[in-house]
Amino acid sequence: NAGVTQTPKFRVLKTGQSMTLLCAQDMNHEYMYWYRQDPGMGLRLIHYSVGEGTTAKGEVPDGYNVSRLKKQNFLLGLESAAPSQTSVYFCASLTDANTGELFFGEGSRLTVL
Amino acid sequence: AQSVTQLDSQVPVFEEAPVELRCNYSSSVSVYLFWYVQYPNQGLQLLLKYLSGSTLVKGINGFEAEFNKSQTSFHLRKPSVHISDTAEYFCAVSTTGAQKLVFGQGTRLTINP
User: Searching chain A, which residue's CA lies closest to the CA of residue B105?
Assistant: First the structure.
């Protein structure tokens, strides 16, 4: 039982390049989330999904796109990376919408030069 | 919209001393409150949560928190800390169960021997 797995764990990009972060969960959770973590700012919600085929914007969605084609996978895309997107990205899935617990991946550290 | 303020960015304490990490929230409706912990180079994991009922909530690793509605606070406490408690602690609030959490900025707890 792997829980929540993020790939890649580290990536360096040049400004303007594109990339996709993959999140996979094997717990059959409906809800999935992408957060970014920056020093002194806690975690901020980028996008989330309440089920297969659905996505919604969070607090800081600009510059990112997401897709949830399969229930177990939630992809985060950067079409044209900017230095402001240098951050640590965390994926999470939720056990129960009303009372549940978020399960987090180990994070993906992205540097944009 | 709800928000969370963690009043201390860093808290240094000696091993076996008590600790309190402060969290205040703002919301015009009923809230659900959470504390998550992030050990170095890991994702976040749930420490405890307040959904309803008793205002004193006990969590894992000997931590507890008290919901104080009049002071809009949810401070985290432990009577005697251990070196292994060194981590960053995040308070989070939601008005929709566990679906969309808003995280505080985090408090880094450092334990000195």
Answer: A42
For residue B24, give the 3-state DSSP assignment: strand
Look at residue A90 in the predicted model and tell me its pLDDT. Answer: 96
- In this prediction, residue A1 has a pLDDT band, given cuts at 50, 70 and 90, of low
Per residue in B60-88, pLDDT tens?
Answer: 999 999 999 999 999 999 999 999 999 99
* Sign of torsion over alpha carbons B87, B66, B8, A93: positive
Suggest the residue from B99, B102, B107, B108 to mutate for an interface test with chain A (most A CBs closer than 10 A).
Answer: B99
Is residue B1 pLDDT above 80, yes or no? no
Residue A104: how many CA atoms within 13 Å on its side-chain side? 21
Q: Are B90 and A43 in contact (CB < 8 Å)?
A: yes
| pLDDT at residue A28 in the model | 94
From CA B49, how far away is CA B72, in angstroms rounded? 15
Strands (DSSP E) contained in A1-113 are 4-7, 10-13, 19-25, 31-38, 42-49, 56-57, 65-67, 73-78, 87-94, 102-104, 108-112
Of A40, A42, A100, the CB nearest to B103: A42
Nearest C-alpha in B relative to A96: B98
